Amino acid sequence: MSYDLFSVYDPPVQIVPVHDYDGTAQHQPQQAARRDSVRSTHSDVYSNAPSSPSFTLTQRTNWSAPHLALAPYQHQHQQHPSPSHPGPSGPSGPSPSYTSPHLDRSAERSTPHYGTRADTYNRSHLSTVNHHYEPPSPSHPQPVMSQIYPPQGRSPVSQPQLQASPSYHSHDPHYDQGYDNHGGGRSANTYPNTPPDEPDYTDYTAGYHGNDFADDYKSYDSHTHLPGAAAKEYDVGAIVPSQGYNNTPAPTGSLYGVNTYPPSPMMGGGQLPASPGFSGSSHWHAARENLLARRVVKQIPLFNGNLVMDVPVPRPVIPTSTGAVGAEPGEMEKMRYSAATCDPDDFLRRKFNLRPYLYGRRTELFVVMTMYNEDGHLFLRTLNAVIKNINHLNSRTRSKTWGVGAWKKVVVCIVADGRKVCDTRVLKILQLMGVYAEGVAKDTVAGKEVQAHIFEYTSQIIVSDTGEVGFGGTPVQYIFCLKEANKKKLNSHRWFFNAFGPQIKPNVCILLDVGTKPSGTSLYDLYKVFEKHKNVGGACGEIYADTGKWGRYLLNPLVAGQNFEYKMSNTLDKPFESVFGLISVLPGAFSAYRYAAVCNHPDGTGPLASYFHGELMNLPGAPPASIFDRNKFLAEDRILAFEIVTKKNAKWRLQYVKSAKASTDVPARVPEFISQRRRWLNGSIFASFYALYSFWRIWTSGHNIIRKLVLQFLTIYNLINLIFNWLSVSSFYLAFYFLIDSSISGAKDPFGGAGSEIFQIFNKVYIGIIFVVLICSLGNRPQGANFMYTLCILLFAACQGILLYCAGWTVYQTVPHTADGWRDWRGLFSNRTFLSLAMSLMATYGLYIISSLMYLDPWHMLTSFIQYLFLLPSYVNILLIYAFCNLHDVSWGTKGDNGNSKDLGQAKTVKKNGEEMAEVALPTRQEDVEALWQQARSEMRIPPKEVKEKRSAETKRSDSDRNFRTNVVLLFLGSNMLVIMLFTSSAFTDWLGKHFVSATESTFNPYLTAIFYSVLFLSVMRFIGCLLYLIFRFFGF
């Protein structure tokens, strides 16, 4: 059977099941996938492993056969030596090499002609696994990346020569260094037609000279799991044992002899069963430790001090025919790892590079998915939606830009904010896709701390929500940036825009948060706006709340209220602002920007500089930032939107795209809801202040005079809005007070004569709730005071219910109750009460209904309108009060920079033959890598246990102490307020008038009398005590 994840989209994508290691499909397909030839590019790494025999699959035509025979690896270079280049020899003799007649598909490739720097990009005449180097010739120029791992042969140009050539010589047709370092450096004359204004990137390359691991005796490493105090140094070729598991004995004898590790128990078609009792992690960790225990130290050449490696992916990840999808040789057989030891802004200066740049591809869409600690379900929710959108681009065969091969114009960048907080299930998903590999990353390179681990791979694998793994209909180019430390979302976007953007040079950048699910054509709809309107610098679509299957999440009033809020914002606010060309906020969870619009000016100023100022101002050594600026950058997406429109001498505008839709998960619990809105409100208010006092920048932009006047009008409108928001707490209370008071003042009481008492009660309850919210906001986290905040929301809902009842009663009393009365309907508008109420209700709720009907999306009025009405006082009072009481908190609700974990090991540098090498440890056995892959696949089928958010013991104690303090303060002040309310209420004064007060004693008050006598009693008692003391002292006591 096949798994069709895209059945709702046209055309559907057939997912071919990924086969187990032994070649047996987990579910037999109706038509077995066939392999025309066997891929053995893994030999680049695994066949060189000296500690174990190497294997290659014997050629078969039916990939779904019950098993695939394994044949010993043949050292074909000994049988068919190259007369021109026999290859170097190591301490144990000549290194094995393998030449496959099946893998040279370079003739199938055709050079893309985009009229860009890729015009002369030649990829022909170089086999992916041909380990016999041939210097470039005039008839066969050296390709750039068709062979990621050059073999034992060296480029005719040495590394010192490369370093001495800081720029390519496009003017010299004879200048060709034949740069074939690992990492895919480009020849000096790769792009002779590069436009003169394009930055010179030839010097920004990282890679290796020679083959994947240079010589046979050179392998991999890391000091992973080694005790820090007693870290042992391991020589080249030595096994690096794992300290976590000692179930595998260390090898004895010569590393190159027969006394090596026994075969992995998980290979040969078998695998450890996934056990739900261990939450789907125990067996995977055992396989991981088995892989780590058998790593071998190897030496790898560095280029400009950068560690860049191409690592073969597990064989089940490689699609049936990479040539059929138009991939480059080796592109889908190798995963590329770069250890970035620099700041994002220095990525180019440190001469790192990326695969799409090396392949010379034009990138139209650059999609970034930012994540913190989101789980695998949310990750797949976003990733699979992006894959569906890329498949849709491939299906647009009539498009000039898209169609067959459109995946080459899309790059998906996944940025994880902190390695230690990244969800392990997410890493397993990426491992199944071939985008991530265990045992490869390092903590330090040449003594410099790694800031981000960058994995690049073109994958066709799709993982479903149920854990099924299969091939999708189109490949996807991935860049997985795993940041070592948690440095917030702005830093993640800085890697995207400042590190990767200048090399990728996309046309349009799309920003997504993990958890946001764009619809099947949303990415195309956003892109089409930029293609159609050349002055659009940014765009956003409609974000709506995820309501679950059959809208079951709407049973939660909090989710329903947010659903209505999102819908009305997309119906009234964003279309209004889009007409003016300035949308106040392009949501970072789902928005798009033209890369040219966000780029800075040559002097370093511009939208991106202002956008990232919020992060840079908090770096060590930076001038102290004001609390205003720190709150302003909590709404960094508002800052970027304003900076694009007001960019000096430019005339970019922003546009709302109704057809581009995306769902997102909204907070379903009160604490998360309040914490989220605290950041949103504080950021939006201070960003609005910033836009208001920077209004003059509208007049320095390149817009015409009409657009400038329109934007000035919008600024005045935003000022009025800001004033109303600032006074919303008092406005809402006064509406509550006067509307109820006017309803009970008429001839008919809506409460049957008890209106005055009910008004007094609810009036004092309303004020009391504000008092409680103020105390809690000043001293308690929402997570630690969930009950108190929930109680306040319920009480505010009760007050809103009284308000709505009184409003309806007032309208009912003002309209005629007979048919004759309605004949003079014009007289209704002479009634000021009716006119005020009717116009007010129509201006709000009436317009909600009309506008929703106009946009053919009225269902939220039926499912969420009532819940929103009862939550409205909480929106106004609780959220605003809590936000302003916590202006000092400028966090994003996540932990700050936790530093590097120092548990991956280091890449130590050595010198050999004048060349800088890195000693690292990497897995050298293909069976270990594929065993870990198979175990990850098994455990993905086990649904994850629902993990409830747990507070640490310290956090629980802190919350308990704060709650105790708040409760004591509330008890103290509340009891005093209760006394005041009791003795000043009309009920108490009426009671006094009936029982105590006579005509001649109008000033009598029993409370005051009791106070006076109590004071007299206490004073007399103290006087008696002091008198007795003198008497006792006089008599010597």
TrEMBL record:
One Gene Ontology biological process: cell wall organization
Places the protein is found: Membrane
Membrane association type: Multi-pass membrane protein
Biased composition (Low complexity): 72-82
InterPro entries xref list: Chitin_synth, Chitin_synth_N, Nucleotide-diphossugar_trans
Transmembrane segments: 719-740, 761-781, 787-812, 833-853, 865-885, 968-988, 1008-1032
GO CC field: cell periphery; cell septum; membrane
Main location (coarse class): membrane
Domain Chitin synthase N-terminal: from-to ranges: 296-364
Catalysed reactions listed for this entry: [(1->4)-N-acetyl-beta-D-glucosaminyl](n) + UDP-N-acetyl-alpha-D-glucosamine = [(1->4)-N-acetyl-beta-D-glucosaminyl](n+1) + UDP + H(+)
EC numbers: 2.4.1.16
Keywords: Cell wall biogenesis/degradation, Glycosyltransferase, Membrane, Transferase, Transmembrane, Transmembrane helix
Composition bias type Basic and acidic residues, residue spans: 33-42, 102-111, 169-179
GO MF annotations, alphabetized: chitin synthase activity
Ranges annotated as biased composition (Polar residues): 43-58, 119-130, 155-168
Chain segments carrying region Disordered: 22-58, 72-207
Biased amino acid composition, Pro residues: 83-94
Function: Polymerizes chitin, a structural polymer of the cell wall and septum, by transferring the sugar moiety of UDP-GlcNAc to the non-reducing end of the growing chitin polymer.
Protein name from the UniProt record: chitin synthase
Provenance organism: Vanrija pseudolonga
High-level lineage: Eukaryota, Fungi, Dikarya, Basidiomycota, Agaricomycotina
Gene name tied to this protein: CHS2
